[in-house]
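Please predict the structure of the following assembly.
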Amino acid sequence: MKATLESGYVIHTRPWRDTSLIVEFFSREHGRVSMVARGAKGRRSRGGSSAALLQPFTPLQCSWSGRSQLKNLSACEALAPALSLAGERVYSGLYMNELLMRLLHHEDPHRVLFDHYAAVLALLADGASSEIPLRRFELVLLEELGYGFDLACDGLSGEALDDQGWYHYHEEHGLVEAPPGAAERLPRYRGHDLLSISRGDFSGNARQSAKRLMRQVLAAHLGDRPLKSRELFKRPD
Amino acid sequence: MSFSPLIEQLVESLRCLPGVGRKTAQRMALHLLERDREGGVHLSSALAEAMEGVSHCRLCRNFTEEELCSVCADTRRDRTTVCVVESPADVVAVEQSGSYRGLYFVLMGHLSPIDGIGPEDIGLDLLQQRIQRDGVSELILATNPTVEGEATAYYLSELVRGEGIKISRIAHGVPLGGELEYVDGSTLAHAFSGRKPME
């Protein structure tokens, strides 16, 4: 398979041999692609090496070829300078990248997710606060990967959520009504907040509920290993 | 054809070296056996001694077999300035430049959530203790100019913000002898934002 100048972002790189890199690339048309950038860390006679380009948060166009899962990067150019995510926003970028690395399958295109990812990066680079864009990104990610569920309906009964009711998240059914009394042990969410989230409104308590809900839903799909980038957000004592 | 167990064991062991595959390991093993037995014996004893004896410097975490590495033990160096780098190879690079007379702190990595490396894995608690205890007045953040290196530098700067010390980040820009035409856009942008008045 050969791909020519496909737009995308580097999600992660790791060193390989002395001067090469293995690059995880999130492209719009092909989804996540792993490739070897040969000699990327080597010194060229003039200017820098392509390792400078192959950084996360830089809009790139890459060409690659190869039949196996690991492709060969043949060319790479920047469409625009790297987006500069100042301060804590870089943690948010790393968080999105970790989610993509953990949940995307190879060569499974997700154009909607890609466009959303690029939009969130642009927002972060503009200095927007990261929490609500991250929640929206998580919702789009779940939807695109087929883990989506209806935020406005009870997954078992199919009825619309009651504004005053309490609901649990269930991996198979989505949101189900919490039986009265037994609810204390499991995380539960107010119907009012869930309905707000389904309308894309994260004001008031909905913001906190969305954070708890996304954390619970993502944990169900991530397996045993927790997300490492969350540690960065913790305030050091 | 397969080798006898001892040779096979040697070939497999050599493969733990970076960039050494089966073929290269076989070549190395046969070379030592055929032509350089003395070198091989010397290598094995040096390897055993180093693996046994080398640990981390108590102050900077760099590799050393003493309690303090040669830099930290040198009383002529400026003990109030600490330069934070990612790897022992970075210490060597800065030392070779001959432009720095302070001490170091070696993280042995950078924050990289995808690789599972968080703040605790790069010894930041040790650095924080050292700043509070040893009267450090300036911290120079010399992590690599990569996204992870920048994230590490930012995390560090937040960590020590309340300590009342000067925190600086090394400059990024155009390499000496380079030509602007061939420098990538991001580096050039850094070079412009970090420009200095002519004196």
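The longest strand of chain B covers residues 78-85. Chain B has a mean pLDDT of 91.
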